[in-house]
Design goal:
The complex is a heterodimer. By secondary structure, chain A is mostly helical. Helix content of chain A is 83%, strand content 0%. Chain A has a single domain, classed as Orthogonal Bundle (ABC transporter involved in vitamin B12 uptake, BtuC). Chain A is globular and about 55 Å long. In chain B, helix 3 packs across helix 4, helix 3 runs parallel beside helix 5 and helix 4 packs antiparallel against helix 5. Chain B has two domains: 180 residues, 3-Layer(aba) Sandwich (Rossmann fold), CATH 3.40.50.300; 73 residues, no CATH class. Classes of the chains: A mainly alpha, B alpha/beta. Chains A and B meet through helix 8, helix 9 and helix 13 of A and helix 2, strand 6, helix 3 and helix 5 of B.
């Protein structure tokens, strides 16, 4: 094990688990509590579309994913805001359209498509030092903003209109959350890939939701489950030679299933 | 005395549906106003317009002398305690009663700042005044409908508002809790001097402190005058359009009220 941890690519992968898995799971708490899972899915697939466009243009896919995803937040944000009252149908159409667009662009990439395939399925073992720095920066920034603005964010998460009625700029915080979701999703694309990244937004936070009535604890549990899912995926894939992204997703789903079965809330609901 | 809320010719449309037509009224400090009317008559739209959540199609809403048509400022919002209609809350929601009540202080405290001991005392006082101090640590989703309404009222009280907007606070609540809430509104009005605008469906249970009734039908005012002495039967006949003559009386008594308030 000591020898394994001495390998540079493994150190990078561990840091990606910590910062990427942790960051996505923290943002996931907003996605779950605001009941906007399709927003996360749409963002992930938009990042994938941006990355494919970059590969086609011969530039770093991370840049394309970041730019397109950040820009898409301007469209997806208001769409989700309006769709809140009706349904997620518009977002569902948007995410399928971006996915289709991504695959179409991929088909135009000349030569071997290994880099493009890595962006679909993820390739945590090939993650670069630059990507780690970006993930670390975003993770620290998200934690810092969460600490400073916890009371405003908790009010917005409880009910935007009630937050607004007490004088909080709910719209500013709502769009801030979407913007940071876009950045973290884009930067984490290499961990599990564009196809499955939204599971790291939804599963750890949903598992945390089953276990606590305290918002702070929910953030903590969600980050913990996100990091543990990534670590489990990493080690399983290394020792059993299976795709990392797929195992990360299965691990996070298993954690959710355990949390659901053991949930004190579920037992309470059954008792009443 | 100048009105604290002045609404002039307010018209609100939701798409092709005209929810409110040329609604005008002035509310004065110390008023206890009941907004009555059938479903879809525009009561909630008036409340939400005062709270700054509705963009008027025409007309204006001035709160504390400031026009809110172009968006309501934080400074005004914290003076208005808004209690929306009760809606369902997931029983698993990760918020305690104290968490929700504290939201009332957040706008006043300022962005990124922590609650001071004075803010925490105000939260405790609001919990005590509404009779829910013993529920402070309970998850919000575990409360009954009436208890949740009290939580929202406590949250609004925390803002130390000058005006309290209450949207059907007694809907779907048992008779005993309705009485408790009515006593609470009486106390808030009489002892705290808060101006109250109350949307009600139950015309038989208007609080005795209520000094004005505004009756709406299909987005138009059919009565705006003294609430005392207005019997449920009279309200029903206004809603049924049986006494259009009262509309004439409305403007005269409106002028009388303005004289009364100086």
């Amino acid at each position: 094990m000591g020898e394994l941890l001495g390998l540079t690519f493994m150190q990078h992968a561990l840091l990606a688990c910590l910062f990427g898995g942790g960051g996505l799971s923290i943002i996931g708490v907003y996605v779950v509590l605001m009941d906007i899972p399709f927003l996360g899915i749409s963002m992930a697939h938009t990042a994938f579309l941006g990355a494919m466009a970059s590969l086609l243009l011969g530039i770093d896919p991370l840049i394309g994913a970041l730019v397109v995803c950040a820009l898409s937040a301007l469209v997806i944000g208001p769409t989700a805001e309006k769709a809140r009252a009706s349904s997620n149908v518009i977002l569902a159409i948007l995410f399928s359209a971006t996915m289709g667009g991504g695959f179409l662009l991929m088909s135009f990439i000349p030569g071997p498509k290994s880099e493009a395939l890595n962006l679909i399925w993820g390739s945590i073992l090939t993650i670069s030092r630059g990507e780690i720095w970006l993930l670390a920066l975003l993770f620290v920034l998200v934690l810092l903003l969460l600490t400073i603005f916890f009371k405003e964010l908790s009010a917005v998460l409880f009910d935007r209109e009630i937050a607004a009625s007490s004088g909080i700029s709910d719209r500013m915080f709502y769009y801030g959350i979407i913007f940071f979701a876009a950045l973290i999703i884009s930067a984490s694309l290499n961990i599990v890939g564009g196809l499955l990244i939204f599971t790291l937004l939804v599963n750890p936070a949903s598992a945390a939701y089953q276990l606590t009535y305290k918002l702070k604890a929910m953030f903590f549990f969600s980050a913990f489950f996100g990091i543990v899912s990534c670590l489990l995926g990493l080690f399983f894939s290394y020792f059993f030679n299976v795709p990392t992204g797929a195992v990360i997703v299965l691990a996070s789903s298993l954690i959710f299933a355990l949390a659901f079965v053991l949930s004190p809330k579920r037992r309470l609901a059954r008792a009443t | 005395m100048a009105p604290i809320i002045s609404i002039k010719d307010l018209t609100v449309c939701y798409g092709s549906n005209q929810a409110l037509t040329d609604f005008s009224t002035d509310l004065y400090r110390g008023d206890f106003v009941a907004l009555l009317g059938t479903n879809g008559s525009g009561k909630t739209t008036i409340l939400r317009s005062i709270a700054g959540f509705v963009k008027p199609t025409a007309g204006s809403v001035r709160v504390f002398g400031i026009e809110t048509t172009a968006g309501i400022g934080k400074g005004i919002r914290k003076n208005i305690g808004y209690v929306p209609q009760a809606h369902s809350i997931d029983p698993r929601a990760p918020f305690s009663v104290a968490d929700v009540v504290a939201i009332g202080r957040f706008g006043t405290v300022g962005m990124g700042r922590r609650l001071s001991p004075k803010d925490k005392e105000l939260i405790q006082r609001s919990l005590r005044d509404t009779g829910i101090a013993h529920l402070a640590d309970r998850p919000i989703g575990h409360l009954s409908g009436g208890e949740r309404q009290k939580v929202q009222i406590a949250r609004a009280l925390c803002q130390t508002p000058q005006v309290l907007l209450l949207d059907e606070p007694t809907a779907h609540i048992d008779v005993k809790t309705q009485d408790e809430l009515m006593d609470l509104f009486k106390n808030l009005h009489d002892e705290h001097g808060i101006t109250i605008v109350l949307v009600m469906h139950d015309i038989h249970n208007l609080p005795p402190q209520c000094n004005r009734s505004i009756i709406l039908s299909a987005g138009r005012t059919v009565y705006d005058d003294d609430a005392r002495g207005v019997s449920p039967r009279a309200i029903l006949s206004h809603l049924n359009g049986a006494r259009p003559a009262q509309r004439m009386q409305k403007s005269a008594t409106g002028a009388e009220r303005r004289r009364r308030h100086g």
